[in-house]
Amino acid sequence: VDNSHRSYWEGGATLRLGYVAPDDDAALVVESSVPGATLLPAELGKEAKPLGTFRDGEAAWRTYLSRPGETALVLADPERTIIVLGTTDEKHLQALASALS
């Protein structure tokens, strides 16, 4: 049996929602039960670099420089990981993330 077509999400469930931000740039929300060690490289790219944190109340989102031109915010807990990423301005990503947490 050829398993080369297997994808990372077979280890859990993943929901993806695309948005157009107020500046007409793209934003994507990914919520998944796939382990972060598998999910983050698949969604952010293997070269993603952590930059800092964004706090929304009690939630602490980790900020990443993702693929060229993309910023990502990641909120991880034992049950799920939420990623908000896109080419839109970081303030739009933070507003979207705040609405989710």
How would you characterize this protein structure?
With 101 residues, the protein is of the alpha+beta class. Helix content is 20%, strand content 41%. It has a 6-stranded antiparallel β-sheet, with helices on both faces. The longest helix is centred in the C-terminal third of the chain and has 11 residues, at 90-100. 25% of the residues are buried.
Task: List strands and helices in order, with pairings.
Elements: E1 14-20, E2 26-32, H1 36-44, E3 49-56, E4 59-65, E5 71-76, E6 81-86, H2 90-100
Antiparallel strand pairs: 1-2, 2-6, 3-4, 4-5, 5-6
Quickly list its features.
alpha+beta; 101 residues; 6-stranded antiparallel sheet; disordered N terminus
The pLDDT mean sits at 87
Low-pLDDT runs of 5+ residues are 1-6
Estimate what percentage of residues fall within beta strands: 35-45%
Radius of gyration over C-alpha positions, nearest whole angstrom: 14 Å
Q: In percent, how helical is the residue content?
A: 10-25%
- Could you state the order of secondary-structure elements as H and E? EEHEEEEH
First CA to last CA: what distance?
A: 42 Å
If strands are numbered along the chain, what order do they take across the biggest sheet? 1-2-6-5-4-3
Outline? globular
Count of helical segments? 2
Query: Structural class, please?
Result: alpha+beta
Number of strands: 6
